[in-house]
Design a protein that fits this description.
By secondary structure, the protein is of the alpha/beta class. It has helices at 25-36, 72-78, 99-120, 123-135, 137-158, 163-173, 179-187, 196-199, 203-212, 214-240, 258-262, 300-305, 309-319, 357-367, 382-390, 433-439, 442-452, 459-469, 479-482, 512-524; strands at 4-8, 41-43, 244-250, 277-281, 291-296, 324-328, 335-340, 350-353, 372-374, 395-398, 421-424, 474-478. It is globular. The N and C termini lie close together (4 Å).
Length: 540
């Protein structure tokens, strides 16, 4: 690893007039800012299609891209939208992503683009689309059918409130779910609420609906084609300026996903297609009752029998989108917290052994060197550390955790034992650094001020300087800290189901002054781009 620095900024946070950040002008504006600031790392959150709660960590697919990130402005340039299509844009809050309002506006727009694409397609574009679908046949067919089926049953059930099917679903789930969850699952058409032949992937039923929903299925394939095209251009622009993109893989997948529906044997599901155990973490810094994520847990024995084929495809697919992968909740590969399905909190779980190095050995045999960052925060045992070190993967340090007296300086730079480390001022799960300092206990504030010999007037930039000055080879800060924003700019509050993932900024907030300050620190602490190396050279 060469010394480098960068910024966390998810594309949904970019400026733009379409209700959510996308892969159009705001993305290229941010890349230019990174280059001016002499940064060589850009970290994003997972890029998959978001489901309930708008969380990128609860996705309908581990392989698909988020269609809401598709830029209407770029579709206009391609000739798939026309000037009149973009005249009546709703008034969106430029500092907050309003997913509901955005979806109501954007999905009809994307359907117009699809309709015009079919009318205007050229032989070359059609050829590229066909090749894209063929290259991604191992996931895109299941994904497109999955989304089409969900939308079909959501629409159908809007006109059929109650009824025998709903009552049967309620009876089967009342010991696991609250009444509100049952309503959300059924009327949101979670896949195990579908007619049984479809839920169990009966080929005749799937073929029948593939014909019935053919246009809808092609629409969702078209959206994936456009997302991947737009993202590939963004990535090429970043790489051309010497910027590497750090992607993010959630260790677990959502129950309501094409992954689980298409591969039920890879998860702990019972004969009724219900999870038997689900994911979470025990009580910790973020939550007194732990975090009940609810994701189905992997049947690692079946994964091993397949040679970890699904995981290998997942890593390979992600490495086509990004240059480096951060694996969220890495400790789950050593041992994971298994909570019986139906529990209301994560408190009554138990640690269960994961696949350990066996999984990574299998992936390396197929793919070679893995540019992976291990998210090793939380309850980390010597066995987890041994696994990470045996794989020679860099771990993470979060400076907001460094000043808790009970932690005894575990995350403080003077205790770093390896340069193979990625240090963050905070992550998407933390408060902004300015908000952290404002609400921190007085003993933490005191330790912070004495440790850095500062007044506490600018905690975000004090932590950025501390990260850059550390021995960690990578130093990364959220865009909110670079902009010195308060708590209301926080991206996520773990354990809180609503109101997250909404942060956006406006173009005027990416100032030349901020770029100059970052460039100064990058030069001061030897984190400048290496001009002697090729732009495509790896820095991990």
């Amino acid at each position: 690893m060469n010394r480098a620095s960068g910024i966390i900024a998810h594309p949904t946070s970019f400026p733009g007039e379409h209700g959510i950040g996308d892969l159009g002008g705001g993305a290229y504006e941010f890349i230019n800012f990174l280059a001016a600031a002499k940064q060589t790392l850009w970290q994003v959150l997972p890029l998959g299609p978001t489901s309930y709660g708008d969380s990128p960590y609860q996705s309908f697919s581990s392989f698909a891209g988020n269609p809401y990130m598709i830029s209407p402005d770029l579709l206009f340039k391609q000739g798939y939208l026309f000037e009149e299509d973009l005249l009546d844009i709703p008034e969106f809050d430029p500092r907050t992503a309003d997913y509901g309002k955005m979806i109501d506006y954007k999905m009809p727009l994307l359907k117009k683009a699809f309709k015009n694409y079919k009318l205007l397609e050229t032989r070359g574009v059609k050829g590229n689309y066909t090749k894209f679908c063929a290259r991604n046949a191992d996931w895109i067919n299941d994904y497109a059918l999955f989304v089409a089926l969900k939308n079909h049953f959501i629409a159908e059930r809007k006109t059929k409130k109650g009824g025998a099917e709903f009552k049967a679903y309620r009876k089967a789930n009342k010991k696991y779910l609250t009444e509100n969850q049952i309503l959300d699952y059924y009327y949101g058409a979670v896949w195990n609420s579908w007619p049984e032949p479809l839920a169990r992937r009966d080929l005749a039923a799937m073929n029948t609906y593939s014909v019935k929903l053919a246009d809808e299925i092609e629409f969702h394939k078209f959206l994936q084609f456009e997302f991947f095209n737009q993202w590939e251009n963004v990535k090429q622009a970043a790489n051309s300026k010497g910027i590497k993109i750090i992607g993010d893989i959630p260790i677990f997948v959502a129950f309501d996903s094409s992954d689980t529906w298409a591969g039920p044997s890879l998860f702990y599901l019972d004969e009724e297609l219900q999870p038997t155990v689900v994911a979470g973490v025990p009580p910790d810094y973020f939550s007194e009752t732990g975090q009940l994520w609810g994701n189905p847990l992997y049947n690692w024995e079946n994964h091993k029998k397949s040679g970890y084929e699904w995981w290998t495809r997942r890593i390979e697919s992600t490495l086509k989108l990004v240059d480096i992968i951060r694996i969220d909740h890495f400790r789950g590969f050593e041992s994971y917290w298994a909570v019986p399905y139906g529990e209301k909190t994560a408190a009554r779980g138990k640690w269960t052994k994961g696949p350990g190095g066996d999984l990574f050995d299998a992936i390396v045999r197929q793919l070679g060197h893995l540019p992976i960052i291990a998210e090793d925060l939380g309850i980390i045992t010597p066995a987890v550390t041994d696994l990470r070190e045996s794989l020679e993967l860099p771990g993470m340090k979060v400076l907001q955790f460094a000043f808790d007296p009970e932690a005894k300086g575990l995350y403080a730079p003077h205790n770093y034992t390896s340069t193979r480390t990625v240090v963050y001022t905070g992550t998407h799960d933390n408060d902004t650094s300015r908000g952290w300092y404002e609400f921190a206990p007085e003993d933490e504030k005191d330790y912070f001020r004495r440790y850095l010999n500062v007044s506490g007037e600018s905690p975000a930039w004090d932590l950025i300087r501390l990260a850059y000055s550390s021995t960690a080879n990578f130093a990364v800060a959220p865009i909110q800290d670079v902009m010195d924003l308060e708590t209301d700019a926080r991206m996520n509050v773990p354990g809180v189901p609503a109101g997250n993932w909404r942060f956006r900024y406006t173009s005027d907030m990416l100032t030349d002054e901020l770029a100059e300050r970052l460039a100064y620190l990058a030069a001061l602490y030897n984190r400048l781009p290496d001009k002697k190396k090729k732009k495509s050279a790896s820095i991990l």
